[in-house]
Amino acid sequence: MKIRLIAAATLLLPICAVTAATPAPVQDLGTGVVGSDSDRIARLERIIKARQQAEIDMQQRLDALQQEVLDLRGSTEQQNYQINQMLQRQRQLYEEIGKLSSQQTSTPAPVANNTPQPVSSGVSLSETDSYQHAVDLVLKERQYDAAIPAFKDFISQYPNSGFADNANYWLGQLLYNKGDYAQAKTAFENVVNNFKASGKRADSLVKLGLIAEKSNDKAAAKSRYQQVVNEYANSAAASIAKQQLAAIKP
Description:
Residues 5-34 and 96-123 have low confidence and may be disordered. Strands 1-2 form a two-stranded antiparallel sheet. Helix content is 75%, strand content 2%. A hairpin with a 4-residue loop joins strand 1 and strand 2 (33-34). It is elongated and about 75 Å long. The protein contains nine helices and two strands. The protein has 250 residues and is mainly alpha-helical.
């Protein structure tokens, strides 16, 4: 029995010696992955690049979504405008019919005076046509650069128009997309300060917050976003403002 044990021990000694002589592999205790320092650095660089690409892709998707929202809002605005224009012309037609009826029951007048005259309804056809032209340059023809002076001309010629708030917002949006933040700020501030009841006021406040962020004025950005949350608590603009507030780092 002792002879067998001695023989077995003799056979195991070389194996143990080889095992002891073989160096243990380098292992990253944090990740459990075997590799050298250069491997770990390369792996970290790949992770950072992947995250950067993911952020770029996310920003591109956000920009695309913003453009889609702009197009949808423009389409809705155009439809509302067309409905209002039809109602306006319908009222004009009814008034003209009423005028003709009253003329038929009265003493006949000279032929030259029997021609019905258009009745003013507060918004002239030249005014609506001018606004529609500017909107069409954006929504139909996609001529954004040409739309900027068109909206400026409309605002200059009809500063008290019922479309003035929308025109200023469109102008601000076009300038913002072009990167002209100074003029865009002026247009959005015009909506905020001069059209308190406008449906574009909350969105204009959000845009002013975004412009402040791009100018590295965090205090002004927070103030604008908070104003939206306070004054338009249940609106879509307030939801965007809350997200922007949460994203601003102290």
